[in-house]
Amino acid sequence: TYDQLNCRSNQLADRLHKLGVAADVLVGILMERSIDLMVGLLGILKAGGAYLPLDPTYPPARLSYMLADAGVDILLTESELRSTVPADLAQIIWMDLDRQVIENYSSENIDRGGCAANLAYVIYTSGSTGQPKGVAIEHRNVVNFLCSMRDAPGLEPADTLTAITTISFDIAALELYLPLIIGAKVIVSPREIATDPTRLLSELRESQTTVLQATPATWQLLLAGGWDANYPLKVLCGGEALPAQLAQQILATGSELWNLYGPTETTIWSTLYHVSGDRQVVRSGQALVPIGRSIANTQVYILNQQLQPVPIGVAGELHVGGAGVARGYLNQPELTAAKFIPNPFSTDTSARLYKTGDLARYSIDGTIEFLGRIDDLVKIRGFRIELGEIETALSHHPMVSQVVVVARAINPDHQSLIAYFVPHQNCTPTTNEFRSFLRERLPEYMIPSVFSLLETLPLTANGKIDRHRLPAPNFTSPEREFIPPKDGLELQLTKIWERVLGRQPISVSENFFNLGGNSLLAVQLFGEIERTYLQNLPLATLFHAPTIAQLATILRADRGSTTWSSLVPIASRGSKPPLFCAHAVGGNVLDYVSLAVHLGAEQPIYGLQSLGLDGVQTPLDRIEDMAARYIEDIKSVQPNGPYFLVGYSFGAFVAFEIACQLERQGEKIGLLALLDNAAPNLIQIRPSWWQSLSIHLRNLQRLERSAQLKYIIDRIIFRLIYQKRENSHKEFLLDRWAINLPPEYLKVLDANFRAGENYRGKYYHGRVTLFRSDIQPLAQTLHPDLGWSSLVGGGLEIYDIRGHHTNILTEPSVGVVAEKIRSFLAAN
Question: What pTM, to 2 d.p., does this model score?
Answer without folding.
Answer: 0.55
